[in-house]
Amino acid sequence: MRMALVAAAGTALVAAIGVVSLSDRVPESDELDGVFALAPFREEVRELSFGMTFGQILNDAGLGATEQQDILLAFREHHSPRRLRGGTEIRMRWHPDAESPHGISVGIDKDNTLLLSRTPGGRWNSSVAVLPTTVDTVYAAGEITTDLWTAVMTDPVLSEMPRNDRVNFVDRLDRVFQWRIDFFRSIRVGDTYRFVFEREKRPDGSMRSGNLLAAELVNAGNPYYAILFDPNGDGQGTWYDLEGESVRRAFLMRPLRFSRISSRYTNSRFHPILRTWRAHRGVDYAADPGTPVEVTADGVITRRGWSDTYGRVIDVRHGNGFLTRYAHLQGFGPGTGVGSRVRQGETIGYVGMTGMATGYHLHYEMHVGGRPVDPLAIELPADDPVPGDAFDRWILEKNARFALLMKAPGPDRIRSRRADQ
Ligand SMILES: [Zn+2]
Hints:
Strands 12, 15, 16, 17, 18, 19, 20, 21, 22 and 23 form a ten-stranded antiparallel beta sheet that branches. This protein has six helices and 23 strands. By secondary structure, it is an alpha+beta fold. It has three domains: about 40-130, Roll (Nuclear Transport Factor 2, Chain: A), CATH 3.10.450; about 135-250 and about 385-420, Roll (Nuclear Transport Factor 2, Chain: A), CATH 3.10.450; about 260-375, Glucose Permease (Domain IIA), CATH 2.70.70. The chain binds zinc ion. Zinc ion binds near residues 263 and 284.
């Protein structure tokens, strides 16, 4: 158990680089000089270790059985004490010379703190405080010297964010640009990027990337843009190019996030098990067993079952006569019964090698009007452009976001900066 006596907090924050704000920046308390004065009360911070209960913490703090019961009762009005995880921070405050604490705060999760306080009558009350999160707008810009993954993972602006958040950031970029650029094959050394995104900062100093507002990727001299816009104001924005065309397609480029194509669509290939020449009317993606399989477009499940050839297989019917098939699955995702509606990107199963398969892979098929087509060769239907009734607002917001993007150093400045070194 970690225990510390805290008198006054005074941590300095490193000045943020590359911060551009849509509004004036509000100074944060963290940036003020620490005030040194005697605390009016004593505070103890304890951390719940694995296997330990909140009750044991109260017991260790010397609270009597009745008071413990009273605290737990107040606690349960908002949260189950049993659901507290190892590592949860518990702060207790005592008035000078008091026997038992008058206030306890428990971090339930990153955004919510449960506050317990003793009334003058001796009863315990509880409430939940939502930690204020500040959001600022930040840009990152750079040149790709190995690959986009490495560029993003080592970007100095992004380095303030947790590693798995940066992983998500690369994933988000890939989700936005997948139809224009193949990150794994087309991105080359010398390509440049500029991103403007929201960054959420919590009072404890931790950060998380928020919405990707605008992005530019210059690939082999060609710039690609994606600007976030929410046409109907429902909070479900999507990305458009500078002309207002959606950068998205009705189908994802591939049903697995990180995978390798192991066999392409052909009318004739040598089959490794049947040892004869046969057509391969699909695309195989090699991946680790259990890798989530994402449905490539909105649709309805029309088949979920077993076949000797396909093993565990799912068929999904989409609009305009499209059907997709996912075969050799190890298992099915939740909510995938026949007749279920699924959304693009939803996990419908997991990579396996059931049926006629020589290794772990997903066999993916696409049919149009009942005939198989090559999903890598077909022109995928486009998503809707910015709707006419939102076009005026789009122009305003696009110009504002594009201007923010242009504040980030562009390809020329990035190259000259590198030449100076
Ligand atoms: Zn196959």
